[in-house]
Amino acid sequence: MNMAGDTGTEAKKQTGGGMNMLVLSCIILGTSLRLAYHRTFQWVPKPTADTVAGHLFSEQRALRHVHDLVNGIGDRQISSPGLPLATKYMMEQVKAIANSDYSRNDMEVQVDLETVSGAVAMSFTGINFTNAYRHLDNVVLKVTPKALQGYPAVLISSHYDSAVCSKGASDDASQVAVMLELARALVYRKDNLPASPVIFLWTGGEEAISPAGNGWATYSKHYKDVGAFINLESMGGGGVPIIFQHTGAWVLSAFASGAPHPRGSRVAQDIFDLHLIPADSDFRMFSARHYGSLPGIDIAFVLDSTAYHSYLDTPERMRPGNLQEMGEALLGGIYPVAQELAHQHKASAHKDPMERAVFFDVLGYFMVEYPDTLAYTIHNVPLALLLASPLVQTFTEGRPVGPGYVRLMASTMRGLMTILGAVGLPALLAAARVLLLGKPMVFYAQHWLAPALFLPISLAGALAPWHRIRLNARRNEPTRKGSYLASQMHGCGLISSIIGSGLTAAGLMGSAAIFSWCSMVAFILGLIMQGPWVSGPRVLGVLAFAFVPVAVTASTVGLYVVVLLERMAMSGAGISVLADVLMGVLHGATLLASSCGALLPVLAYAIPGGHKRLTASLLGFSLLLAAWSHMYVQPYTPTAPKRMVINHFVFTEADPAVSTAQHDQIIAMRTVNESIAIAGADSTALEQAIDVSKFTRAPVIGREHDVVFPLTNMLRGIVVNPPDKRPRERSAAATTTGTDSDGTASSAAAPAASASAATGGGSSGGSLAAPSPSPSPAASEAHTPWTKWLAAQQQQQREKQEREQAAAAAAAAAPAQGGVRG
User: Fold this and answer.
1) pLDDT averaged over every residue in the chain
2) What is the three-class DSSP state of 664?
3) I need a labelling partner for 560 at 20 to 30 A (CA). Which of 300, 501, 720, 811 fits?
4) At what angle are helices 578-594 and 509-529 packed, to 10 degrees?
5) Are 648 and 674 within 8 A, CB to CB?
6) CA atoms within 13 A on the CB side of 767
7) Is 239 left (phi over 0), alpha (psi -120 to 50) or beta?
């Protein structure tokens, strides 16, 4: 009786102690994750008014330029009427800065408008092509203190053109405005100027895969004066300006040392190196690792990509404080970059422009960076330490080495199972949901749904290998439970360190840093936990030490998960489960990173009992949410629409009924075939977005999407007959999808096809360019900007053809006198 009573009392104590550990763990880790979320997604500096001192950056002053470009001018695509107007506006603004009353005799402010033409052979999304351009404008403002003539300059660049179907408030009018306000503030300053000249460059053609930037780097007289560059981009109006590409580690280090809140991580560069995001910037034209010869960094706003390159990219959608943060970062960051350039110039010693570094920010407070050459050592240290962890226990506790390595290998296998469960189960759920229920990307417009759907099942998979950890500790190490738990933590760290070393060898330094630093944390946490008992002070010490690493890794990985989620609308239409499986895997990786791997055994040990019930509850929640979301949640909304590409093709040939001898200047053409290609660019099938049964199908020519080359391979859709079937004639030579007029750029062409493309929103209700549902294609066409534009173009074409036909008929009716000339 007494033994039974003692056993019951012990069980109650263990249950109570476990519950206290669990509550304490949830409180501390929850606080850490809340801090990470606030610093990553919520915090911005307070925007300043236009009444602040002239030498300071003002978001309100910068926003005026955004409204002028977006609301005053509007569309600024290459070949559109708005782009020359934007060039004129930019020249007026930079001249006003150069000629302002506060300019001084000790400073030279030079303004140039440079027009470039040329071509560059390049590759994009794995496709090689030649990007030709003609008469593209670049606006240059060079600020040079007269005492620094001949010094290498810091280049700051952005682009003032906009993407198709977008007025480009965030991309890239926001960064254009930041640069204008920054230039004004620098010229205003009466002292404390940068130690090198500063060149501001606004390119007039980036969206066509950087032709204007290539022209400037190839032909500009200022390019030879540049020593380093900072390129500014945007993927959305949600903010968070991160350094996402770099070449020349010293530029990164110098900029981060001066920026008040540096953000970024090498993970983003890994994503670009793996071509996971089909995007590019002028960085490639200036970078020594690509087409240029310079060291530099690429900074971009990355949140709210659902509005990127669409009609939703408006000033109203931009988060207040974005421009202030970017302006303050530049105003602080360019000074150490200029100082380093001046030092190199005086010493006649230039640092390697090809060198790269591993870097990550600590919640925006400061940045950690170290060169790749050092990373090969740092990233392999945790592996060596964890392999030696049984030896540490031997020296500190006098335990045999052999059993220690047996425990380490067993815990390493559990760590491997943890990773497979955390990543594999959400991936399987994602694939099964799409294949069985048939609604991909249900989380696209409702971001909260992705973590709610994938994290519970990921946690169930991560905890599954540790269900018996408390029982195993009592059986195997009844007097050394702390040391037993430490061995399990070291096993998780060991598998993480092996992955980190492998990624380092593969050159994916950003991803390797996460695994390697997590494994280092796991090693230290295991040392803290080591001892005879799993006591409250030890658990508190583990959680306290893990507080900052958990917040940093959750911030880093969580940010890129959100960015990639928002980019799923442009992930390509080839594989229906791609977006969902990728999100499942990434959420599993986020869970592992947020726990630093080693905290999962601690959490499992803290659960006082009922592991199976907890696992069943987590699995059941994810499965029920998957079913509920299929029935009640739509992937797209008016603020997060589906993206589509619509091409109108008209295939022509010379009209044999009209003699070419009569028309030696204009060749009469007739239409032989025309069609409209409608395609989506994400995992959701076109049939799920619009009612394709109401369209009359047309023959597939096979090159319907060449107009958006080289993104052709990312599109899937249908080809339909145009609504207007009246015969028409074209009095122009066979045209191509590429253009060759003033201020144009072309990449690839479909012979004898005239095409016009539009990207915009759609929805499960059936609208092609607006996210609200419509009852039929006809009703949809009456309310979309694309169909209105197309109807106007068709009407103008018909009127032109009628005039030409009337002229040809009049010429044919005239009496022949020695031949007829058209």
Assistant:
1) 84
2) coil
3) 501
4) 40
5) yes
6) 22
7) left
